[in-house]
Design brief:
The complex is a heterodimer of chains A (407) and B (352). By secondary structure, chain A is of the alpha/beta class. Chain A contains 15 helices and 14 strands. In chain A, strand 9 and strand 10 form a beta hairpin. The chains are: A alpha/beta (407), B alpha/beta (352).
Amino acid sequence: MKILVFNCGSSSLKYRIISMPDEKEICSGEAQRIGPKTAEPSRIIYHFNEKTETIPVEMRSHAEALEEVRKLLSKDSSLSPDAFGHRVVHGGGIFSSAALITGESLEKLEKIKNLAPIHNPPAMKIIYACEKVYPGVPSVAVFDTAFHSTIPVYASTYCIPRGITEKLNIRKYGFHGTSHQFVAEEAARIIGRPFSEFSAVSCHLGSGGASLCAIKDGKSIDNTMGYSPLQGLVMSTRCGDLDPALTLNLLQHFLGSTTDVERLLNTRSGVLGMSGSSADIRDILSMNRENSGDMRAQHTAESYLWRIRKYIGSYLAVTGKPDALIFTDTIGETIPHVRWAVCSDMECFGLKIDVEKNEHLEKLPADVSHEDSRIKILVVATNEEIAIARRTYVLLCGIKNQNGDRS
Amino acid sequence: MNIISISQNISKLEFALFDGTCGEPSARGEIMNWMNTGSDGIPEMISACFTKSLRNQNRMFSANLICIRVPYGGQEFKIPELLSSNSLDKLKKIENAAPMHIPALLALIVSLKKYFRGTPISLVFETSFFTRLPARESSYAIDPGLSKEISLQKFGYHGILHERSYEYCHEKDKGISKTISICLEPIPEICAVKNGIPVMVTGGSTPLEGLPGETTCGDIDPLIILSLSENLGWGPEEINKTLSRKSGIYGLTGKKMDFAKLFSADDPVAKFAKELILYKMLLASGSAVAALGGVDAVVFSGRYRELGGQIYDYLSSNLSCFPEKHEILPDHLLKLTAAAGITALLKKSKSH
């Protein structure tokens, strides 16, 4: 079965065709800079048959991006998909596992799309476009929140009146679940422990969003993101944790406009808001390395790292005696300074990083823990697309078997 | 020396009279909802309470110093101060940052000055200790130039108890440099103190952030507030009232309950609330250990400090790096306010 996986960002669309069940990648790429014109032109990266092309093309919307991807894939008959797997960030309280796209599930998705205003709406545009462009090809939505459906109630409950939380379905949902589960399964395999007995703290540090997950006995027990992907760490343009009174003050400042406050906290805060110069923590860290003298940059880097470190401490406490601390995604995999800064002086937890191994990483996965470290420190490349393909395949095979049993 | 110690809270004004700073107060009392009734009659009420108590002990009431505990002093007040025209100017400057506290304090000061004419007044701020909080801990990830009216700096709100907790442990054993201070007040707070400097605290730019309290929500996703506004049509005032007076233990259980009652309650709803609060304390303690890079002492303070044993058992069963036993700070807030106030007076007299 050839599954075309879409991983949709606010201005990007990653795609990958994966043959299942052998998990072989047939083709991959990314449509970048979708939407209004930016400093650099929009383009599609296309990787097939060991060749990579970069094709400049205007894409004003995700639907246009999908159309351009479709044109590329139609050049070779081997690239015709049998099914789609879509990454959908927020499944609300409705979806605790992957779901087949039907009229009913789309209705439900519509109801919860505002829970993740940056992520869910573009993913839904791609789902609708696939239904239109590829009629009859099944689509499966794989939710970032699904892995976190095991978070205990005491950890997912906010301390506001019960009547309100029940009425508005307010609770901690957690995000990046697909990635946390994937790298944790990989880490358990590396260590040689069954996943159901594996405990870890997983650090998904992307160049955009970032979260930590506490995993105990193969289950998510906490995540730094909350009701929405806004809570938790300092992210590229998202503020992370904030005093509730501050949000109220901002609401007054913007004369009650929730749209303005939401836009400020989601798109103009975090690393960008603090530094005033870049939304990419790599730029900020290199400014510091070059001793630019930019105090805002220094302050931003320190705050970014400090919050990760504090949450690592929290999650090491709640996982008891974890087997591993895992780093993944763009920042977690490629920036040794970040791993070092958040792991140094943590021997009290049984955590000690090997400076040499950490600095000179050659390939992933890698173990960067010191030989005295009780907890393994692993760097594992995330592959959300494979994880999505796995869940899509399992769901569709299950449906096929069910139908087969009935007939 | 007779010292009147006053603690300013939103719901009540607590006061006590000390002969010195040692020992128990010779008299004490409280005035509920004092902000609603105005400050005019307050000095008379305090005086009447003390006079009556001392009469029973065949003593006369007089005051040599008034010490006021103030919840918020911003960056302006780094240490306790003897009231002067300069400190009044500084208080007026921070009125907008703490609209619940500072205007009421200014009115109280006017009444006290009028009634206890010539008696020096010391101001002791809960936030002074946190003016040394490193920027990486005290900042929010928001454009710092966004608004002059909105305070974007994090402070803790039990600085007097946290500072004293560290000193208490350090005095007992000079080798202690990394302390986790757990203040068990109606709004509890955990603070990591390294070499006398706070490095991490659960409280935020207001006491709403951090651990849940008896009626306060603690940490919540910022988008929840926007959701309350959009879905319930509530304005900031209604939301603030809900988050500060109807949340926390009250929001979870539906009952007005203090921490002592919660920890001894048997019903499943209360047990759940207790489990949740203990979990939040464990998360915060893990953060504190990471902030310190280890821990030498864990000390409990505040009016529910006797719950420290129970809480410590839970925390230490999950955090193997915790020391073998915990400490409990014997002093209470009004006494510490008096002690800090007298230090300010002595400093002032030395400088003259």
